[in-house]
Amino acid sequence: MAKTALVLGATGGIGGEIARQLVAAGWRVRGLRRKAGGPDQSGIEWMTGDAMQRADVLRAAEGAEVIVHAVNPPGYQRWSELVLPMLDNTLAAAAVNQARVVLPGTVYNFGPDQWAHILEGAPQNPQTRKGKIRAEMERRLRQAASAGTPVLIVRFGDFFGPQVGNSWFAQGLVKPGKAVTSIANPARPGAGHQWAYVPDAARTVLRLLAQDNLPPFANYHFGGHWDADGTQMATAIQRVVQQQTGQAPAIKRFPWWLVTLASPVVTVFRELREMRYLWQQSVHMDNRQLLAQLGSEPHTPLDEAVRATLKGLKCL
């Protein structure tokens, strides 16, 4: 019989990709969304409900072996109110069903004492509000694992991919639905930045779930694409666009001054400004533990990943 997974956040980037790949791998996959939709050809069994309502999550998780917790408040809004209650609902459902919780993690929960080279077990001393919330999420997950609920955390860099609209790639470097005439690079030259191509990220989660020897609390870092000097992603976009159109778009500096100016009144800008440090200095997660577990990491060549992403965003 097929295994069952509940994916919270299946309408989003990483959650949606994990759900689609689980379906392709033969899993029975349920998704939870607030509004009933029309026919869906993805193979996902959609249920109407809200991740903030414990009864909805419990109903959707019935019989599940895995619960993927990939849900986040849209537009960075009301994080302090919503993030932890949603996780608590997931943990309650996982405990009832003896399911493993999967969290696509981030680098937010680490502080400046670890930024240059971060190992999985490094101390978490975040200085930002979102980072402190992320660290508390992981503390609760570790506590749940010690009480008998298995957990898998995979921490990723900035997501990009053909169906990822809410990302720095799609909202900062280029503009979805428009030809690329210029590229806004938010990175300070010389500051390394970590990127995660979503199809590779989801494939990694599936390969880990297929392992028989995962510990009750398993956590790994995904290497992805390491932009060692903060310029390689922008030049890859430039290169791909030039190959496609014959014209090389200009690379410009991201207007951080505008983000700073508008942040008091625009929520998204305020949240982006808080995470500016990720573009000002190298923040690098080490994936050697993942490599030891899997032997290799799914890795699409950068230009191929960028081309697929630009096509998916209707920029080519």
Outline of the structure:
Helices cover 40% and strands 17% of the residues.
Average pLDDT confidence is 93
Overall number of domains = 2
Give the number of DSSP strands. 12
User: Which value, in Å, is the CA radius of gyration?
Assistant: 19 Å
- The CATH architecture term of the largest domain is 3-Layer(aba) Sandwich
- What's the helix-strand series? EHEEHEHEHEEHEEHEEHEHHHHH
Structure description:
With 316 residues, the chain is α/β, with parallel strands linked by helices. The protein folds into two domains: 4-161 and 193-227 and 282-299, 3-Layer(aba) Sandwich (Rossmann fold), CATH 3.40.50; 168-190 and 229-280, no CATH class. The chain is 40% helix and 17% strand. The chain has helices spanning 13-24, 54-60, 79-97, 129-146, 168-173, 198-209, 232-245, 256-262, 267-274, 277-280, 288-294, 302-312; strands at residues 4-8, 28-33, 45-48, 66-69, 100-105, 151-155, 158-160, 182-185, 193-197, 217-221, 225-227, 250-253. Strands 3-2-1-4-5-6-10 form a seven-stranded parallel sheet, sandwiched between helices. The chain has a three-stranded mixed sheet with strand order 7-9-11. A two-stranded parallel sheet has the order 8-12. The longest helix is centred in the N-terminal third of the chain and has 19 residues, at 79-97. The radius of gyration is 19 Å and the shape is globular. The model has no long low-confidence stretch (mean pLDDT 93).
